[in-house]
Structures are given as C-alpha cells and as structure tokens.
C-alpha cells in the first residue's frame, strides 16, 4: 500500500502544468505567446510556495516596467486555471505580480523573484 500512494500523488500533480509566456500588444491586439510548459511536480510545488508567501499590495501608482512575463498554473484535463499572473520585474531585483481578473497586485522580494525566475526559466 505504501508504494501505491506516491503513484497516486504523482499522478495528481502530473495533470498540472505551468504555462509561461510573453505578453504582447501589437496594433491594438493584446495577447500572450506561450513559450513553454513545465510539468515537473517539484517546480509546481515550489511555485505554489512562492505564491503563498507573496504579499498583497495596493495598486502601485507608478510601475517601473511593463509585464515581461506571464505564467499560469493550469489543470488542462479539468479546464481549470488556478493561477493567472503577469510578472513586472523591478529595477531593484524584486517583482510585482498582477492578476488582471481580480485586479490584484502582489509583491515578491528579490530572493522570491530569483526563485520564481529559476522555476519558470526567466
């Protein structure tokens, strides 16, 4: 029975995927070019840990940059997107995450941003 549980749990996370892309705005058309998909369960859990620690902030008055990266955490078989965030990298090495759907902003420290970059390959 002990051997069956890891197989079941790995099957659950194998149905999840981190999609990473680049936002664009060309001739009034906005969208995201998905560049890669990450299905590694360790990366997915590490991403969740970063998001849990992110600090919600008020909408910044002036942002240092435009979103350079987008990522989502999806369960394609179920048609569910658990996370849907834009990343705005800041000059000091930190970043701001933006959820367009809920118009929410979250701050990541420089260390958290570096960890996020290593997970999503940016």
Describe the structure.
This protein has one domain: Immunoglobulin-like (Sandwich), CATH 2.60.40.4400. It is 29% helix and 41% strand. The N and C termini lie far apart (40 Å). The chain has a 7-stranded antiparallel sheet with strand order 2-1-4-5-6-7-3. Strand 4 and strand 5 form a beta hairpin. It has 3 helices and 7 strands. With 122 residues, it is an alpha+beta fold.
In brief:
The protein is α+β, with helices and mostly antiparallel strands. Helices cover 29% and strands 41% of the residues. It has one domain (4-120): Immunoglobulin-like (Sandwich), CATH 2.60.40.4400.
Number of strands: 7
Low-pLDDT windows of residues: 1-13
Overall mean pLDDT score?
86
Portion of residues within helices:
25-40%
Question: What features would you highlight for this structure?
Answer:
seven-stranded antiparallel sheet; alpha+beta; 122 residues; 3 helices; Immunoglobulin-like; globular
Summarize the topology.
Blueprint lengths: L3 H11 L2 E10 L2 E10 L2 H13 L1 E3 L11 E7 L4 E10 L5 E5 L4 E5 L1 H11 L2
Antiparallel strand pairs: 1-2, 1-4, 3-7, 4-5, 5-6, 6-7
Helix pairs in contact: 2-3
